[in-house]
Amino acid sequence: MMILSSLPVGAQRAQHPEIEISRNTIREAMEYLASDELAGRNTGSEEIDMAASFIEGKFNEFGLKPYFKTYRDSFAIGELQAYNIVGVAEGIDEELKDEFIIIGAHYDHVGKIKSVNGDEIANGANDNASGTVGVMELAKYFGVLRENKRSVMFVLFSGEEKGLRGSKHLAAKLKKDGIDLYAMVNLEMIGVPMKDKDYLAYVTGYENSNLAKKFNEYSYEENVLGFFPQAKQLNLFKRSDNYPFYQEFKVPAQTICTFDFSNYPYYHHVDDEVGLMDYEHMANLVENLLPGLMKMSTTEIKEIKLTE
């Protein structure tokens, strides 16, 4: 397909078959995270703790290091105990490794809601097991290849559905720690393709930075990210886990999404189920995000910037 590093993708796959991004691996992870067993992954529940353990196991398998003492970044929402899951693929360049890119998504959902035809579990397949699995697939690639010059932090947030609580907590914590954050890229609701668009996904806050333009250049002129007018009209830039990082760091921090309000009717609904996800689309999107993200992690200077 495209060149991601010094080797063509085919050669990378041959050397590292474990980094294969396929519909089957995506489906397997989706079927667990959005299963009835996890009961909608409500923040503070026993079931979301099971999801957290699953993600931790994958991060460890991929060779990511915990950013903190463990993968769990703990915080409280009232009496609820919650956890962001944070792993790092450390940069290989001695000068650039202290600069960070965050790739994130929220793994919580709303749990059990009003019953429809006897079903009360809001499984949250598209919202946001899809983004969670997308982040895990990207983490697998970066964790195994170890070609990123900058450090790439992979974060699965809890508490998004309760007011972006996990991302607000972590953004403030990292700001206090003084990390050098280059950019934050968030994945939200990527389980079904957009309709009648000449790009694969839209980016919120499109006009706030040159992220989409540079990302498409990095992707060898592939039109991966585009402008979606409704995203601006509905102010989606402020409604997902990218926003606290923009507030704290004033760097490009944006969400990539394929939910266009006409292609999927089951937002916060019990019918947001894995059987409705398009796994070919998800695998294709993740594959097409890789060149841009890898290039972001290897450029000598920070080319992606906020709009003046």
List keywords for this structure.
alpha/beta; 9 helices; 308 residues; 35% helix; 9-stranded mixed sheet; 19% strand; Aminopeptidase; two-stranded antiparallel ribbon
What is the architecture at the second tier of CATH? 3-Layer(aba) Sandwich
**Largest sheet: number of strands, sense, barrel closure:** 9 strands, mixed
The fold-level CATH name is Aminopeptidase
| Mean pLDDT metric | 94
Poorly predicted runs: 1-11
The tally of structural domains comes to 1
Number of strands: 11
Radius of gyration: 18 Å
Quickly count the helices: 9
CATH class placement: Alpha Beta
Describe the structure.
Helices cover 35% and strands 19% of the residues. The chain is α/β, with parallel strands linked by helices and 308 residues long. Residues 1-11 have low confidence and may be disordered. Helix 2 (23-33) packs across helix 4 (125-145), helix 2 packs across helix 9 and helix 6 crosses helix 9. The two termini are 34 Å apart. The chain is globular. It is built from nine helices and eleven strands. Strands 1, 2, 3, 4, 7, 8, 9, 10 and 11 form a nine-stranded mixed sheet that branches. Strands 5-6 form a two-stranded antiparallel ribbon. The protein has one domain (9-296): Zn peptidases (Aminopeptidase), CATH 3.40.630.10. The protein has helices at residues 9-15, 23-33, 46-62, 125-145, 165-177, 211-218, 229-233, 243-249, 279-296; strands spanning 65-66, 72-77, 80-89, 99-106, 112-116, 119-121, 151-157, 180-188, 201-203, 225-226, 253-257. Strand 5 (112-116) and strand 6 form a beta hairpin.
